[in-house]
Q: What sequence folds into this?
């Protein structure tokens, strides 16, 4: 979710977006999104701790395997 609601209107349909430092951003709950036009947007990532763990593990299957190995 973009911090500035007007940012949604600044992105063209089909425009490529890149999330800088995805892992760090997920951990912090704040993402930096860069468009193909070299514009940067701030976004927040409101996730539960479990959702964050699953994404950082690479998905639900990878997370499940990691949890099983830890036991």
A:
């Amino acid at each position: 979710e973009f911090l500035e609601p007007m940012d949604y209107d600044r992105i063209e349909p089909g425009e490529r977006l890149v999330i800088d430092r995805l892992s760090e951003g997920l951990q912090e709950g704040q993402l930096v999104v860069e468009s193909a036009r070299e514009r940067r947007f701030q976004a927040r990532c409101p996730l539960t701790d479990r959702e964050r763990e699953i994404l950082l593990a690479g998905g639900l299957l990878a997370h499940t395997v990691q949890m099983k190995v830890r036991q």
User: Anything to note?
Assistant: The mean pLDDT is 93. Residues 7 and 41 are 7 Å apart (CA to CA). The longest strand covers residues 30-35.
